[in-house]
C-alpha cells in the first residue's frame, strides 16, 4: 500500500484526479495510523496496569514469605500453641487435644477396641463420653436438640441379577437420602462385605459395629434394609421413648 501511494503521489506529476485519490489514500493512512496509535496507547496502559498489579502482588507475597520464614524456625513445637502470640484464631492448633488423641484415654488408641466384630467393646458409654468431651465441636445432638442419628444401609458389591434391581436400589437409596435430609440425619451406604462369613442379612451386624466405632458422636445407629422405603416422609421416630434402651428392633410390642 505504501508503495502504491508513493508511486502515484503528487511528486510524480499526476492529474488533479490522481492527486485527489492520493490525498484520500493519505487520509486513510493517517486514519489507520491514528487507530494504530490509539491501539498502542491502549496496549501500553494495559501492560502498565499488569505491571502495577504484578508489583503489588509480588510485594504482598514476598512479605508473606518473609513472615513465614521468620515464624518457621519455631515450628512445629512452639508456634500457635498459645493464643496470645499474635497469630490469628484460624491458625491456632490446640496441642493438648493432640496429646489426648495419642493417649490411651482415646479409645482409638486402644488395641482392644476394634472395628471388627468378635471382641466386644467394654465400658463403651464412658469411652464415648470422654471422646465427646475432648471434641466439643462434634455434637451428639442436632440443632433442634434431637439425638444425632446415623442411618446405615447397604447392598452387595456386584450388580443385581435382575436388570431392574440396581434401578430400584438407587430409588430406595434416594428415598432414604431425602428422608435424612428432611430430618437432619446422617447416612452411610455400604457396598463392602466386612466379615467374609457374615453374608446376606448377617452383613449388617459387622457394619453396624464398624459404624458405632467410627461415629462415636451418633446417639443412634439406624439400620434400614436397602429394599425398604419410607412412605411417610414426616414420620419422626419417638426418640424420647427409647432413651433408656440400647437396642430397638421392629416387630415387638414397644
Ligand atoms: C449427648 O451426650 C451427653 C453425654 O456426653 C448426654 O448427657 C446427652 O444426653 C447426649 N445428648 C443427646 C441428645 O442424646
- Order of strands in the sheet with most strands: 2-1-3
Task: Provide mean pLDDT, rounded.
Answer: 77
- The level-1 CATH class of the largest domain: Alpha Beta
CATH T-level fold name of the largest domain: Spore Coat Polysaccharide Biosynthesis Protein SpsA, Chain A
Q: Structural class of the helices, strands and pairings? A: mainly alpha
Total count of domains: 2
Helix content range of the residues, please? 40-55%
Hetero compounds: 2-acetamido-2-deoxy-beta-D-glucopyranose
Radius of gyration: 37 Å
What is the CATH homologous superfamily assignment of the largest domain? Spore Coat Polysaccharide Biosynthesis Protein SpsA, Chain A
Distance between the termini: 98 Å
Low-confidence stretches: 1-17, 57-88
GO cellular component, one term: trans-Golgi network
Protein name: Putative galacto(Gluco)mannan alpha-1,6-galactosyltransferase
Transmembrane segments: 33-54
Family: Belongs to the glycosyltransferase 34 family.
Structure explained in plain terms:
The protein is mostly helical. It folds into two domains: 1-71; 123-242, Alpha-Beta Complex (Spore Coat Polysaccharide Biosynthesis Protein SpsA, Chain A), CATH 3.90.550.10. The chain contains six helices and three strands, in the order ααααβαβαβ. It has helices at 2-7, 16-71, 95-102, 124-134, 165-183, 204-214, and strands at residues 149-154, 186-190, 220-223. Strands 2-1-3 form a three-stranded parallel sheet, with helices on both faces. Strand 1 (149-154), helix 5 and strand 2 form a beta-alpha-beta unit. It is extended, with a radius of gyration of 37 Å. It starts with a helix and ends in a 31-residue tail after the last strand. The model is unreliable at 1-17 and 57-88 (pLDDT under 50). The chain binds 2-acetamido-2-deoxy-beta-D-glucopyranose. 2-acetamido-2-deoxy-beta-D-glucopyranose is lined by residues 129, 132, 140-141, 147, 219.
